[in-house]
C-alpha cells in the first residue's frame, strides 16, 4: 500500500508552473513556432489577457490529420481548435487534481486565483510529487500497463499514427532489431516542423505549406516512410517490474520522459509505466487493464462474404486507414473525397450492375463534416435513390439532432461517434456480410 513519507497535505499551488500564453489573434504558424522553440506541449489562448482556451501538440496533430485546411492562415482561427480550460482552486489537493485529470482524460489543469491563472498543473508535476512524497513499498508491477502496444521499425508512418489514435495513446513502442525505441505525438510534430522565428512573412507561409506537405505526403501517405525515420535515437529507458514505483518516478523525472519500459525477471518487455499509471497509484487504485485481444478486434471468425463498401471522407489520412483495414480483412472498398463524388460513384455502380437485384454497396460510410454536402445530406440523396441502402454516418457533431432526423430510418442509417476505433467500426459493419 502506498504511504506518504511526510504528514503534509500538498495542494496544487505547491507544484505549479507559469502559464505560457498566446493571443487568440495569432495563427497556427505562431502556435507551431512557440511550442517548438520553447519545447513545451501546450499554450493558453487569451483574449486581451483573459484566458479563454488551451491548445496542445496532441490537439494540433489530431485536428490537422482530420482537416487538410488546418494550416490555411486565412481560414482557421485558434478559437476554432482550442478546447476548454479545466480550472481548479490553488488549494485543491494533489489527490483531487489526479482524480480530475484521470476522469477527464486530460494532461493539465489551470490553477485559478482571483479570476486569473496563477499557474498550470500537469501530469509531470504528479511525477515530481510522487517521487518526493511517497514510500518505496509499491512495486512497478502493481500499476504498470501490462499490454504493450508496439510497431516494428519498418511500419509505415500512417499506420503508426493510426494505431496511436485508435488506442488513444500518446506514445508507441518501436521494436528495432534487439532493442526498443519509442515514437510520441511530439515526434510527428517535430518531423513536420520547419519554421524559424526570424523568417519573413512570405517565407513563413511558404514553409507552412511545406509542413502540410510533410504531414500529408511524406509522413502519412505511402509505405516508403516508416517508423525508423522519426523514432527516438536512444533506446527506451527500462526499469524492472520488481523496482519500487518511487524509483521509477525518479528515473522518469531525471530523464524528462513520460514513460518507461518494464522488463520481467527473464529480461523481456512486459509492460509500460506511464504518468497515467502514476496517477492511479496516487489515487491508490488499480487501473483497469484491457488485454490486446479485447481492444484490437480481430477478423470475424465467420464472415459469410466479403463486403463491398463505399467510403467518403475529405481526409486522405482517414481514407488511407479505411483502405488498409477493410482490405486486410478481405473486403472491397471504393473511396471518394466529397459528397458529390460519392453520389456519382453510387450511381455509376448502379449503371454497372443494372441486371443485379443486389444493393450497389453493402454499406456506405459517410463522414459528416465535409466541404459542400454534409454527411446527412448525402445520406438523404442516396436513400432517395435506394431506400434500403445501409448507411453509416461518422460524426462528432449533432448526433442527437441526426438521431431525430433519421429516427424513422434507424434500420438503414447508423450513427457512430467520431473517435471510435476504426477496427471496431469495421468489425461492427461485418454484420452486413
Describe the protein.
It is a single chain. With 433 residues, the protein is α/β, with parallel strands linked by helices. The chain has three domains: 12-133, CBS-domain (Roll); 140-291, CBS-domain (Roll), CATH 3.10.580; 297-432, 3-Layer(aba) Sandwich (Rossmann fold). The protein has helices at 28-37, 57-65, 78-81, 94-104, 123-133, 140-143, 157-167, 185-192, 201-219, 245-255, 275-282, 292-295, 316-328, 339-352, 375-385, 399-405, 422-429, and strands at 21-23, 42-47, 50-56, 87-89, 108-113, 116-122, 150-152, 171-176, 179-184, 238-240, 259-263, 269-274, 308-312, 332-336, 363-367, 391-395, 413-417. The strands form five sheets. Strands 14-13-15-16-17 form a five-stranded parallel beta sheet, with helices on both faces. The chain has a three-stranded mixed beta sheet with strand order 1-2-3. Helix 1 (28-37) links the parallel strand 1 (21-23) and strand 2. The model is unreliable at 1-8, 194-199 and 285-302 (pLDDT under 50).
Blueprint (SSEs and pairs):
Blueprint: E1 21-23, H1 28-37, E2 42-47, E3 50-56, H2 57-65, H3 78-81, E4 87-89, H4 94-104, E5 108-113, E6 116-122, H5 123-133, H6 140-143, E7 150-152, H7 157-167, E8 171-176, E9 179-184, H8 185-192, H9 201-219, E10 238-240, H10 245-255, E11 259-263, E12 269-274, H11 275-282, H12 292-295, E13 308-312, H13 316-328, E14 332-336, H14 339-352, E15 363-367, H15 375-385, E16 391-395, H16 399-405, E17 413-417, H17 422-429
Helix pairs in contact: 2-8, 4-11, 5-10, 5-11, 14-15
